[in-house]
Amino acid sequence: MRAIKAYRSILLLAVVFSALAGQKGAFAAEEINVSKAGVAIHGYDPVAYHRENTPVEGKQAFSAQHDGATYWFASAENRDAFLQAPDTYAPAYGGWCAYGVRVGRKFNTDPQAFGIVNGRLYFYLDLGTQKVWEEDVARNIAIADRIWPSIKATPARQLAE
User: Fold this and answer.
1) Is the pLDDT of residue 3 over 90?
2) Which of 28, 74, 96, 157 has the greatest number of beta carbons closer than 10 A?
3) Mean per-residue pLDDT, 86-105
């Protein structure tokens, strides 16, 4: 009888830890702005922003995983560059709108509204928001960098409440 109770306790703990591990994965997914299919940057190539300074649509055939998100690339060469240095090419703030992060929110972004500052890729809600951000880039980055750790794992819908 004692062995059965111990077994049930161990089984219950395994179920609880398994559920908690699943929750962690769900929260991690909120850190990066992805589509319902898990694709980041609306399918645009993060390496192309750096190399060509323009948005270039990626192809599903050239994809890679990083931090729970799928990134698409225009070429195998860009995918391989990303895999060698993902933190160099992955967007700041998980691809959420940089200005949104600055004000404690997570807004979706327009892949056409982007900027690269000191080698770091930033996205914005739209081109108008980008212009506001660019009025004081250094200050905006400092504020967003300070706020990001506190909202990083919070679902976007909770930040709108």
Assistant:
1) no
2) 96
3) 97
